[in-house]
Amino acid sequence: MADDDKDDAQNPFKGTPMEQIFGAFSSGQIDMNQIMGQMQKMFAPHEGSVNFELAKDVARQTLAAAGPDPSPTSAQQRAVDDAARLAEMWLDTATSFPAGATSATAWSKAHWIEETADTWQQLVEPIAQHVVKAMGEALPEEAKAMAGPLMGMLSQAGGAMFGQQVGQALGGLAGEVVSSTDIGLPLGRDRVAAVIPAGVEAFGEGLEHPASDVLLYVVLRECAHHRLFQHSPWLRSALVGAIEEYGRGTRIDVAAIESQMRGLDPSRPEDIQEALAGGMFEPERTPEQQRAVDRLETLLAFIEGWVDEVVAQATAGRMPAATPLAEAMRRRRATGGPAEQTFAALVGLELRPRKLREATTLWAALRDRQGAEARDAVWGHPDLMPAASDLDDPLGFAQGEKRSQGDDDFDAELGELLDGGQDDDGKGDGAGPTA
C-alpha cells in the first residue's frame, strides 16, 4: 500500500488520460500499443466540449475496478415487476396523476451508465463548454496568437481530460444509485421505471427491514417520479435550463491563477498536481450562477417533497416500514454519497434538494386543506408553482395567503427561463421549453 501511495505521488498525470502512459514509462514496462491507444483516445475527434465516448469508457473501467457487477437475475426482474404493479395500484389512491411508466426493469450498474449517458452529456456539456470558452478568453492576446496552431489540439486534450473526470464521477455514481430518478432528474428512458437491485440492497443494509419492503419503497418513489415528469412536461426543461444557465455564468479569475502559478515550483510536479486537485482552475461562482443554483436546488426540493408526500399517502396504513425508510432516504438525499460529492466538485453543482422537509410539509399542507387534486394541479404550469419564499411559510401557501413581492423572484426567473430568456429587444435566446 505504501508503495502504491509513493507511485501515485510521483505521477504528475494522475487523474488524467496521461496517467497510464506515465505509469508505463515509470515502471519500465513500455507497451507501445497501449501508449498509442491512450494517445488516440486523448486526441480523438469528438463533438462538443467533452469527449463522452472516453467518459463512458472510463466510467465502465472505474465501475469494473470497484468489484463484481452481475446482471440482474430473472428472479430480481420478477420482483421488480411485482413491486411496480403493486406500487402503481397504491399510487392511484394517492395522486390524481395517472401512471407515467409503462414498463419496469432491473438494471445492473453498468446498464445504468449506458442508459443515462446521453442525459449526463446533455447536463455536463453546457458547463464544460463555458469553462473551456472562459479559459480561452482569459488568455492574453499575445498568448492566443502564439498558441493559434495548437488551440485545436489543446481543445481536444481538454475534452479528453474533462471526459476522464466525468467518467470517474459517473463510474462512482453507478455504485451508489438505486434507480433512474434517484437524484431527482429523469436520467433514463422515457416511461421506463428502472431500479438497480444491487443499489437497493446496499441502501437496505443495516436498516433492519425486509428486502421486499426496501425494494417496494424504492419502486414507489421511482414510479411517483415518472408520474410527475409525465404530467409536467415543462419540468425537465426547467431543470436542464437552470444547469445551462449555470454554465453560461462561468468566469475565470485570471489574476488568482497567475498568483498561484507564481508560487509553484516547476521542478516539483507533485505541487502542480496538488494545485490542480485543489481547484486551481475552478471557476469562481458568479451571482448569475448562484441564482441558477438556488433555483435548481429549490425545484429539486419541490420535486422530492412531492414524491415524499405522495409515497407517504400511498403507504399509509399499508406499509409500516415506509416511515423509517422515508427518513433513511431523506438523510441519504441530504448528505449525498462520495461519488455525488466528486461530481459536485467537478462541475460545481450539488444535485441535492434544499429545504426538503419544508417542501414535503408544503405539499402535505396543501393536500390537507384543499385535497390531493389541488396539490397536483399546481404542477400544471410554472406560474402556479410555489416560490422559494413559500418554503419558509408552507402553511401560508396552503392557505392561499399572498406572498411577499420582494421575496417572490423564483416564479419570475423560472418563467423567464421557460419563455426563452427575453432580451431587451424582446427576442428570446431559443432556450424555451421543448415540450
Automatic annotation (TrEMBL):
Source taxon at top rank: Bacteria
One Pfam family here: Zincin_2
InterPro entries: Zinicin_2, Zinicin_2_N
Biased composition annotated in UniProt, kind: Acidic residues: 407-416
GO MF: metallopeptidase activity
Oxidoreductase among keywords: no
Keywords from the named record: Hydrolase, Metalloprotease, Protease
Region named Disordered: 384-435
NCBIfam families xrefs: putative hydrolase
PANTHER family in alphabetical order: HYDROLASE, PTHR39420
UniProt name for this protein: Zinc-dependent metalloprotease
Organism: Aeromicrobium fastidiosum
